């Protein structure tokens, strides 16, 4: 049994210069890191032993037992099977149950790795928050629809929020099952990660449409801008999927790695910074043409700075500052918090019950067809256009 230090597992694994005996000599017998799987072997506890059994007219070694680990800090433990000084291979059937608590009723820790101790409560907390946000969004949608202000951008927000709801539900279901059997439902966890990428990409698309003033100051976006948005969003979505695939296909399970260490993750950092610059520029152009929306876009720029820069900052902290044994749950909590904060912020700005200057919509959905590419600056100009007193609203 090796643990995660430079002179243990890192020295033994994938090191072609070491023989089987050399790898064995890396272990300290005083720490009981070597377990002899033989009937004549001596074990440190009375519950462990090996015996010879007959199975299909063949003799088998049947070994069973338990082992407790105590260390100064959380560690990763690696099990390696060796048959040194032998010309024959080994056929092994094994079953391991590794727990982090002697108390089976402690569902938050018993089956979970140390870096996932709070994965279940974190997933449950943010699932509850997302449900509250979705219910609030449904109420807002009803009010906006009655006022004929349920625009495409708000509907896009609802799609993003719904994807996050399904993702959070699946993730909670996985961890809840994992707390009971130590296996969970990996397929649900994978689907949850995919749906979260959909949610994030839809929200980024929403930010770009808002920056261009779509449904706020204009009814259409130019072909050139549409192509740029499609290209950026497609690249962003592909990179986020590649980041997940990189962790599954490229990363070695025997190494301590996280998906933020992948090449696509660093490419996403670059896109985040480019997206923030583009959002800021588009917002500035929109405000220059429509000064009455200045208050709304000031808030949006403050938020977009937080949104686009949080990803790079979290990645750098996760890869270079956080200890490996806390990274998983910290990143899970921070990512969920950033996504939830985005939903809360957008709902606050679009709250139909608040008579605030930062409310973005002033054109009704049934009036968009009567407008040209650009909307009038306020509702009074709309009336003038409909009465035929104004020929140009742009």
Automatic annotation (TrEMBL):
Keywords: Glycoprotein, Membrane, Transmembrane, Transmembrane helix
Keyword Iron: no
Membrane spanning residue stretches: 76-97, 117-144, 156-175, 187-209, 229-251, 263-284, 296-322, 334-354
Pfam families, per the entry: GPR180-TMEM145_TM, TMEM145_N
UniProt key word Nucleotide-binding: no
Species assigned in the record: Meloidogyne incognita (Southern root-knot nematode worm)
Boundaries of every GPR180-like N-terminal domain copy: 1-94
Cellular compartments per GO CC: membrane
Origin organism lineage: Eukaryota, Metazoa, Ecdysozoa, Nematoda, Chromadorea
Domain of life, per lineage: Eukaryota
Its membrane topology: Multi-pass membrane protein
Residue ranges occupied by any GPR180/TMEM145 transmembrane domain in the UniProt entry: 126-346
Record-linked PANTHER family: INTIMAL THICKNESS RECEPTOR-RELATED, TRANSMEMBRANE PROTEIN 145
The protein's name: GPR180/TMEM145 transmembrane domain-containing protein
One GO biological process term: G protein-coupled receptor signaling pathway
Compartments (UniProt record): Membrane
């Amino acid at each position: 049994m090796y643990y995660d230090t430079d002179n243990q597992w890192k020295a033994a694994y994938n090191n072609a210069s070491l023989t089987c005996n050399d790898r064995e000599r890396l272990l300290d017998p005083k720490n009981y890191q070597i377990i002899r799987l033989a009937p004549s072997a001596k074990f440190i506890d009375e519950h462990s032993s090996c015996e010879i059994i007959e199975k299909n007219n063949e003799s088998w070694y049947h070994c069973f037992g338990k082992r407790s680990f105590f260390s100064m800090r959380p560690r990763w433990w690696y099990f390696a099977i060796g048959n040194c000084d032998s010309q024959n291979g080994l056929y092994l059937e094994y079953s391991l149950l590794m727990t982090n608590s002697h108390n089976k009723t402690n569902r938050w820790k018993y089956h979970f790795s140390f870096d996932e101790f709070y994965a279940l409560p974190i997933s449950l907390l943010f699932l509850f928050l997302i449900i509250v946000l979705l219910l609030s969004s449904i109420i807002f949608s009803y009010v906006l629809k009655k006022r004929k202000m349920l625009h495409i951008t708000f509907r896009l927000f609802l799609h993003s929020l719904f994807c996050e709801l399904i993702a959070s539900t699946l993730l909670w279901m996985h961890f809840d099952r994992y707390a009971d059997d130590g296996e969970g439902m990996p397929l649900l966890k994978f689907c949850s990660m995919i749906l979260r990428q959909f949610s994030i990409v839809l929200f980024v698309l929403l930010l770009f449409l808002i920056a261009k003033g779509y449904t706020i100051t204009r009814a259409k976006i130019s072909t050139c801008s549409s192509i740029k948005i499609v290209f950026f969003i497609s690249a962003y979505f592909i990179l986020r999927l590649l980041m997940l695939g990189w962790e599954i296909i490229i990363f070695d399970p025997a190494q301590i790695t996280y998906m933020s260490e992948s090449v696509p993750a660093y490419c996403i950092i670059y896109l985040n910074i480019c997206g923030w610059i583009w959002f800021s520029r588009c917002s500035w152009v929109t405000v220059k043409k429509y000064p009455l929306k200045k208050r709304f876009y000031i808030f949006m720029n403050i938020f977009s700075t937080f949104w686009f820069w949080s990803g790079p900052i979290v990645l750098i902290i996760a890869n270079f500052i956080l200890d490996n044994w806390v990274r998983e749950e910290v990143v899970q909590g921070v990512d969920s918090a950033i996504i939830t904060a985005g939903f809360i912020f957008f709902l606050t700005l679009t709250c139909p019950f608040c008579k605030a200057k930062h409310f973005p919509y002033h054109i009704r959905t049934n009036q968009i067809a009567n407008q040209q590419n650009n909307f009038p600056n306020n509702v009074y100009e709309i009336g003038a256009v409909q009465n035929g007193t104004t020929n140009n609203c742009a």
